[in-house]
């Protein structure tokens, strides 16, 4: 009944929200949208200087104040050099990006995917490749050619959060990357976790999946708290995919969604929706969680999401307003590919701008609109 009541409350809140095209706002960007973020894969060493130029010339000019870099194994780890990518960022490379962000007042947050996303397509990522004993589903073999759907329901591998040795290793990576990036926050990913509490896992079987997910959030949060760092995660596993109709990707259909009532309240939720301006930010805020709305490549949807977030803050109670954090543009192509698209891509003609759905167009329209407010 608690879940149904929460969803009903969400529906009531959504109905009461003004249409995005009716909203007008004016004021300092920090009061309208305290977090104005950009999330992208970290560059490879050869692309660091180009990306620093992008920070200086594009992010700073658009008043972006938060940069999430998806690092994963693209760093020359000293604690576990066996987990480095073959070509990886040095500490000197990282310090160039740190210096650029400091100069412009941009908070730099590194991300290493924890729990899920330990593989992609038919390739196992470094953690499970070097430590296969951490695999939640070792009996699921990586295919020669990946296709979805498949008989194993394989999307991405997960590590088993109850393996007694996994956290000693992943937390060493977290500490090292946070120190190198001089970070006061860390993004742990944790999206699209399909393999969790598997019936064949001797450590996890018969365990409540929401409890397993929440426990892992608490472990990571508590580890970061020792060094006064804040945990950020994606929010999809805490939304009910069946009740909301959001499905198995942008929400959960494997029983993890009750974890929204079990996770710590001092984390930051990155609430991503790419094809609709779903109002689930209201749901997270009503649960006492700070939330940031995340678009991708649809400019019209991104602007609507931005206007919704401004409206949430403008109409919220004093207790809820601080929980509506802002907006975070996500980029899901490689760093170098996005920069090539950004600088070489042609701007769509005025008559086609509404139908142009690219990451470049989404980024420029979103932040140009913000800066016009």
From TrEMBL:
SUPFAM superfamilies per record: (Trans)glycosidases (SSF51445)
Signal peptide: 1-25
Keywords: Hydrolase, Signal
UniProt entry tagged with the keyword Signal: yes
Entries under InterPro entries matching the protein: GH, Glyco_hydro_20_cat, HEXDC-like
Gene Ontology BP term (one): carbohydrate metabolic process
Residue ranges annotated for the Glycoside hydrolase family 20 catalytic domain, each copy included: 73-296
Gene3D superfamilies on file: Glycosidases (3.20.20.80)
GO molecular function terms noted in the UniProt entry: beta-N-acetylhexosaminidase activity
UniProt keyword Signal present: yes
Stated family: Belongs to the glycosyl hydrolase 20 family.
Protein name: Glycosyl hydrolase family 20, catalytic domain
């Amino acid at each position: 009944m608690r879940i149904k009541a929460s969803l009903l409350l969400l529906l009531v809140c959504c109905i009461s929200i003004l249409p995005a095209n009716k909203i007008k706002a004016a004021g300092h960007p920090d009061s309208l949208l305290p977090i104005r973020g950009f999330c992208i894969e970290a560059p490879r060493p050869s692309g660091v200087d180009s990306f620093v130029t992008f920070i200086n010339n594009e992010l700073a000019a658009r008043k972006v104040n938060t940069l999430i870099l998806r690092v994963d194994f693209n760093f020359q780890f000293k604690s576990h050099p066996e987990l480095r990518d073959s070509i990886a960022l040095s500490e000197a490379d990282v310090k160039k990006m740190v210096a650029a962000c400091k100069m412009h007042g941009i908070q730099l947050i590194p991300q290493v995917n924890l729990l899920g996303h330990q593989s992609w397509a038919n390739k196992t990522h470094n953690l499970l490749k070097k430590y296969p004993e951490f695999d939640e589903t070792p009996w699921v073999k990586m295919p020669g050619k990946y296709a979805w759907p498949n008989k194993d329901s394989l999307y991405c591998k997960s590590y088993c959060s109850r393996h007694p040795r996994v956290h000693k290793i992943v937390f060493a990576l977290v500490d090292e990357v946070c120190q190198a990036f001089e970070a006061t926050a860390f993004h742990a990913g944790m999206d699209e976790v399909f393999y969790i509490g598997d019936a064949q896992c001797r450590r996890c079987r018969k365990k409540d999946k929401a409890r397993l997910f929440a426990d892992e959030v608490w472990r990571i949060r508590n580890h970061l708290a020792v060094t006064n760092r804040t945990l950020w995660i994606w929010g999809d596993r805490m939304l009910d995919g069946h009740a909301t109709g959001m499905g198995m990707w942008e929400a959960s259909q494997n029983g993890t969604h009750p974890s929204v009532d079990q996770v710590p309240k001092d984390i930051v939720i990155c609430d991503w929706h790419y094809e609709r301006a779903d109002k689930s930010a209201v749901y997270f805020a009503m649960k006492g969680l700070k939330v940031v709305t995340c678009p991708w490549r649809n400019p019209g949807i991104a602007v609507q999401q931005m206007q919704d977030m401004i409206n949430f803050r403008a109409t919220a109670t004093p207790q809820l307003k601080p929980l509506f954090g802002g907006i975070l543009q996500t980029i899901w192509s490689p760093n170098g590919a996005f920069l090539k698209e950004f600088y070489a891509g042609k701007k769509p003609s005025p008559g086609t701008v509404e139908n142009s759905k690219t990451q470049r167009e989404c980024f420029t329209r979103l932040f140009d609109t913000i800066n016009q407010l």
